[in-house]
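[job 0412] stage=fold_complex status=start
inputs:
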Amino acid sequence: MGVEGIGARVTRKEDKRFLTGKGRYTDDMTVPGMKYACFVRSPYAHAKIIGIDASAARQMPGVIDVLDGKQLQADGIGNLICGWMIHSKDGSPMKMGAWRPLAVDTVRYVGDAVAIVVADSYLEARDAAEAVSVEYEEMPAVTEAIAAMADGAPQLHPEAPGNLIFDWELGDGVAADQAIASAVHVTEIEIHNNRLSPNPMEPRATLGIYDAAEDHYTCYTTSQNPHVARLVMSAFYNVAPENKLRVIAPDVGGGFGSKIYIYPEEIVCLWASKKTGVPVKWTSDRTEAFLTDAHGRDHVSKVKMAFDSDHRITGLKVDTIANLGAYMSLFSSAVPTYLYATLLSGQYAIPAIHANVRTVYTNTVPVDAYRGAGRPEATYLLERTIETAARELGVSPAELRRKNFIRSFPYQTPVIMNYDAGDYETSVAAAMEAADWAGFSARRADAESRGKKRGIGMSCYIEACGIAPSAAVGSLGAGVGLWESAEVRVNAVGTIEVLTGSHSHGQGHETTFAQLVAERLGVSIDSVNIVHGDTDKVQMGMGTYGSRSGAVGMSAVVKALDKVEAKAKKIAAHMMEADESDIVIENGELKVAGTDKTVPWFQVALAAYTAHNLPGGMEPGLKETAFYDPANFTFPAGCYIAEVEVDPETGKTDIVQFVAADDFGNIINPLIVEGQVHGGLAQGIGQALLEEVRYDPESGQLLTASYMDYAMPRADDLPSFKLSHQNTPCPSNPLGIKGCGEAGAIGSPPALINAITDAIGNNSLTMPATPMKVWQALQSVH
Amino acid sequence: MYETSYHRASSVEDAVKLRGEHEEGRYLAGGMTLIATMKQRLAAPTDLIDLRHIPDLAGISIDGRNVRIGAGTPHAEVAKSDELRAVCPALCNLAGMIGDPHVRHMGTIGGSIANNDPAADYPAAMLALGATIITDRRWIAADEFFVGLFETALEEGEMVTAVTFEAPEKAGYAKFANPASRYALTGVFVAKSADGVRVGVTGAGANGVFRHKGMEEALGVNWAPDSVAGADVDPKDMLSDMHASAAYRANLVKVMAKRAVIAAG
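[job 0412] stage=fold_complex status=done
writing structure:
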């Protein structure tokens, strides 16, 4: 490891511009003639559109035009799609209802877009949007999944009778039933996974620019994957062919999944730019973000876990109902299926697993991947269940987990995944030592003397990230491949540009990707620039989500660097009249091993471009491209331990200690990894204690549409975290790295709820464990 | 925000005159509620009369145990006033619990009590301290001032200029914050003076801030944290919303009252 190479705690190169307010976000983009959009949105959760009268709005000051869904449809703009096909267990394909970018005859959630107003200023657009008269015929609404499945429930889409999208299964139901029937003990529990709003600091925004002379579109957008946005908008929405559509995702202020998807606004602003002849910019306000950004989670599950007399888990049966909202968002079908049920083995050797998943339409904003996406739901379910089992069996929750750990690798689970490497014992031991697990009873007694109820809770998570082998995901229904591309361009003076299809929206790629180059070539990270987020600059890429940029994106950079190094060595060998196989690269020089002959990196680069003296037949230049398609998912795992004190008078929970012991494989930059874990833990703690999207079940109005009512975690809600890393390198990628972006959000909620239920002596507690709910649970104990 | 006209008042008289000229106008103090409400288009005053540059509204003056706080005094100034802390530290502590640092440097005591948000902190203190609200035209006892949810005794165009009260022997405030907004889910201010004990409760009452007579009597007999345990707090009198049920708020009223007495010492 050099001072800036792999493993170095380098501060982030990009922070200077972010921390001084010099970042350039989509809303900062201004082009000549640009106008502003405001969307007319449905105030009803479910209604027929009888008519739209924009005549008054069109006459208002500054208004350029008002456009509606019928015009959009007439121009051939397509419906929004779900990019992952799931088949029900009867073999039928999922029942996808039409999602028009602007609703034509029916609105299905509060916030559904109905029309766009383009005006000289945002305020004029907003005034005019209020003046657009939409006549609705209100219909009954349903917001909760179980209610949506009931007889007589309001029906959202004619394509999906009973609001059922699919009824899917994974695993061996007969074997799981047999295990349960012959078990010595069966733990049964109902699990609720609360609905969350992603809340990136930067709200969504888009700027659509149509160039009539070139018949070309440019789309600035808050995207985690601009190439996917271009692909989908050209292939499915008929906005423009790919060569006529440039998508740029500049600085993006957080995504957490919510900026993976293509939303109506990007499509409509591009189309509106052509219709009106002016560039059209839209920026969401915070209330619009609550109303229209894809939400996360929202599962209800019934679980049975079977044990033999030796406390070994013999079977697991899970019945899950997932609320997907009013329409199927881009990856919504994959989240409660292949990103969820495939992780139900956890860290445990469970011979028989069966999961049944039903997904349901409701009159709520679409639900899709949110930090962790399916894996937090699996982990919460499994870790709450095993903790409950330990209490029922009267054994230590740590020992029950240890007894059931998978201990040899590779390990094929009954639910598709093949775990390549791991060492769960080391993480649990490290976490228990850091948490002083053995000293807990003394701390509990001390808390009791202070009138507080102290509890401790554990969670052993595993997740699958770095998604994933293209052929594998293709066979499971994915509409895209999940490889990544990289291009390494060495300039004539030796400085380097790395072009990546990964996208950084807070992850620190400009630093970590440069560290990889510094490690390989011995150059300074300041001589390396990372280029991303522009489809005109980077040829193709699949973007950043599912903790994939390190494991997949950087692996592509490794492959491109391999090619660059091979060519550089050939040039250096020719320059120094040495054998190519004797050349080594160290500290920014190419050396003939075992001699004092060296040539600086920049001279090799210069030689490549002057081309005065290259080996015979060699093309000039030093620039290489690579695509990397992973051989497997990677499997980060770890053990989290939360310790809490509950104030029995108010029900308020204080997190007095939080320990995270994670195995992320090899680590590029510990500082950034720790930051990712801190952020993930904050979101997991938010889910466990604070956050919940609430709709009024009758009217379908969103009740938590601002920070007055939606509780985001703040610094003073969080403890100082105790982190450690136990690294088993991933065998399937060249850097041996796993993913660290989602682990904190995946592993922490069950640790907290296990701790609180331990403290209060009542296992019936749903997230978020607000002070009121904890107090109520305490009243029922008394 | 809809279009509005801005006026900077130079004196109380000037402000009242401007307000009289604009039927749909509003006074603007710190703007911590009004501006946010306007941005959400839930309020649309034609004119804003800015009170923030009126010298007479600023500052805290103490004469013996008599306290006068100008309506334009921001919460941060109340929180850090050594003179006030010497005679009534509980009010400094309360001011330090309002919102966040940005809010505390913009929001004012006059704006807070004139708005009478049912979850605001100051109204509980005004009631418990037996404060008098001074306006451009009269003096109003706190008991008469706070009428209901967002309702006060202020007449059209009437403006709060100051509050005044006699510093109590002891006082304390305990607040249980809404996890989302950090407003008071329940806040209780207790004050003990020669005239007896007064208890002001905010955040919890179905009709806004109120005094709890049962606790006042119990604490009058025995000024001790446990004295409030037997008080009757009827959930029927409490607010109930998605953040807290009436039963939970009724519990919090007792717990916060106890803690306020502990804080008072």
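[job 0412] summary: The first strand of chain A starts at residue 35 and ends at 41.
[job 0412] exit 0
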